[in-house]
Amino acid sequence: MSNKNVTGPLFGLLSLIFGFVALASFFLRAMPAFAVCLFFSVASLAVFARLRFADFVNFFVSRQARYGANVAMSIIGVIGIAVFVNVIVTQRFDKRADLTTLQLYTLSEQTKNVLKTLDKEIQVTAFFSDGDNSQLARESARAKEMLALYANESEFITVSFVNPYVERLLVDKYGIQRDGTTVFESGDRTEKVSTVDEQKFTSAILKLIRNETKKAYFLTGHEERSIEDRTPIGYSEVKAELENQNYAVWLFSSLIQPSIPADCAVLIIAGPKAPLTREELKILTEYLERNGKLLLLLDPSPETEDQRLLQLMRKWGVEMRNDLVVDIVHSGVQGHSAPFPEFEQHDITRALQGVGIPFLGTRSVTPAQEIPDGLKVKSLAKTVGGTRVSWGETEFDSVEFTPGVDTPPPVSIAVAVEQTENANQNTRLVVFGDSDFASNAFFRTENRELFVATINWLTLAEDLVAISPIDLQQRALRQLSAQEAGLVQILSIFFIPMAVFIAGLIVWWQRRGGTA
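Structure (tokenized):
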């Protein structure tokens, strides 16, 4: 047996092996290894062709080559038919089937009904960055899938994705405060959604097509926070954000007007320092009894306390103690206590789980011990830690917990009240023990989101449709580590095909009788 007959097949085998490793390296994105293996594969093939030139030429004119060419042409023909069907037929009729158990790629019937009524253009701009945040990457992928379904369902919806760190002009135009915000725009009206949720997306579209402007009234006459005040303690940022959310902002004085206007979607009492008169309390009581919506932000008051207002809140299941919530771990501006509470599960705080918001100088606000029938009272945020960390201090100049006197932890600092007795009675209240968190000095990102979510919940605008969210937690697979993912790639791309190749090579060698 000549050296050519021995070394020729060896170089042919080496060419196949190096070619296979080069292909595996390409899929694994190991470009240096891909370049080296590709070079050796081509070099080995050249040596094989030089040593076994006759066999190399005969391979292309042999009967096996003709059979192989026929098979290749048949495969190309089948692929061409498949491409024709997909490009021509499916684009024309656009038929899809969602075979997932949870119907992850199907819009709800409520959303489809809303999209069928669209008669105006809606531009959807999703602000997602290309960072390494895995949670944000999953939200971005989910947003692309979901918004594509919206665009396929209605020709009036146009979707675009932009990087907020690149498109700064668009960020400034829409006032984007958080990565992962989606803006729905129609004409001069916009709606912003900070979570990837079908219910939120469809509600935003409904707000735009209904072309409805709700009125938010701020109570004046008691040294409240001013919506015209642009200083750090003012509420001018609150006014601007409410107007961005398509609310009309008005002032209301119960000392002048005999009743709260009928078109009041929500009444906001922001940090009053003077007590309300008996007549004003009567006006407020009548408003709440006729399905009114109230946001009360009442700061701690070491000197005077509005007892009549506190008594009214007790009638609605809210207990407000005249204390100062102390947090030993955290301190705020000028040494004031600034608790960072944990948010409870509620529609208002759905997007704020795990977020820390400081409340500078807050009092305790808790559900009353005896809640009237027909009311649902829920704490929104509570302090973290035992009595050595946080409590409600009733002596404002003390920093030591006194059992039986001070409010024990965990201390609730915000409460939401909803009337649930029957469908015709739907009074809602949200009470915070602090008004600083929404002032101009702190009205950024999470604080802004909390305030807007509170207003939307009060005005029944947080969800205009009832769509059950998809719970992915119970069906989520364990996430692979980087080493495990690499092992799976190597096994599936390299070792398994290599094993099949070697098995085929052994069978081929045995059928040739073990001769070169």
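The two ends are 9 Å apart (CA to CA). The longest strand covers residues 375-382.
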